[in-house]
Specification:
With 191 residues, this protein is of the alpha+beta class. It has one domain: Alpha-Beta Plaits, CATH 3.30.70.100. The protein is built from 4 helices and 11 strands, in the order E-E-H-E-E-E-H-H-E-E-H-E-E-E-E. Strands 1-5-3-10-7-9-8-6 form an 8-stranded antiparallel beta barrel. A hairpin with a 4-residue loop joins strand 8 and strand 9. The longest helix is centred in the N-terminal third of the chain and has 10 residues.
Length: 191
């Protein structure tokens, strides 16, 4: 599993209705994308859920590198880059996945990134993060991943209701979920 996200920070007075309309018009285009586990169309709106900025921040779990590459070099990402400028794309190696009990469409997401101290064994940190994946009735999907270039650990969760107060990290609203191959992503540890 390959994990990817880019964030487009928008002006404080930006009409976020433009992003909502863009997702409403184009979100379905990846509903059958080969190699895509899921794409969560995420936004943050300044002043809501503690967000200091307006931001469009799609998050992806790719089942295949071919699917990810086809997206990055294809018309969808090229169009986004044309409209907003080419964003930096963060990527992590998927380390684990958990399917929660909630099967309703997610409405919220949380993302927590932490640097692994040099003295920390990365395998132990990943095992601990996998063991600590949330066990909550509103959990839709949770993933753990690592950026070995920065030695950062990522924890990501999609929620079918409001994210629990105890869920750490940045909070997002989910405008749409494309999940054509989510069921084909292996659950549990990925090594």
């Amino acid at each position: 599993m390959h994990v990817m996200q880019y964030e487009i920070t928008l002006p404080a007075d930006y009409d976020m209705g433009i992003i909502r309309k863009r997702v409403a018009d184009k979100g379905h285009l990846l509903d059958a994308c080969p190699g895509l586990g899921l794409k969560a169309y995420l936004v943050r709106e300044r002043g809501q859920d503690g967000a200091p900025v307006n931001q469009y921040a799609p998050f992806y779990l790719w089942r295949t590198p071919e699917g990810m590459n086809a997206f990055l070099w294809g018309p969808g990402f090229r169009g986004l880059s044309r409209d907003f400028g080419r964003p930096a794309v963060r990527h992590w190696l998927g380390s684990g996945l958990s399917r929660g009990p909630a099967r309703d469409t997610p409405v919220a997401a949380t993302r927590h990134v932490e640097r692994l101290p040099e003295h920390t064994d990365p395998a132990e940190a990943v095992e601990a993060a996998l063991a600590a994946l949330p066990d909550h009735p509103a959990l839709h999907t949770a993933a753990v991943a690592v950026d070995p270039g920065r030695w950062e650990l990522l924890r990501f969760a999609l929620w079918a209701g409001p994210a629990p107060d105890a869920a750490p990290g940045t909070r997002y609203r989910v405008l749409h979920l494309s999940s054509p191959e989510l069921d084909r992503l292996p659950a549990g540890r990925h090594w």
